[in-house]
Specification:
The protein has one domain. 76% of the residues lie in helices and 0% in strands. It has five helices and no strands.
Amino acid sequence: MRIATIMLTAAATLMVAGSALAAADVSDVSFIQASRCRGIASVTAADTTDLDAWLKAASRSRDSSVIAKAADAQDAGRREAKTTNAERKARLAVELSGPCQAFKG
């Protein structure tokens, strides 16, 4: 019984480490795009829990200049999402339901 518990704990630890390594393999461009998605989602009242976790894991190995660009992209996404233009809102909704889904869970 004790061996099974140890093996399950080791497997869980490896799964967590594997997901952290997968986030570290993300390109800077993808990280910046995910930040833009976070900005858009924050205005549209979409659930950002998965996106926040993804960004947190992916930010650990980022250079400060990439972090700054990601913050700029998030601010730009937030500003763009505050539009009253129906066409732009539709385009942003498509972006949230399409490319931004890649950064969840």
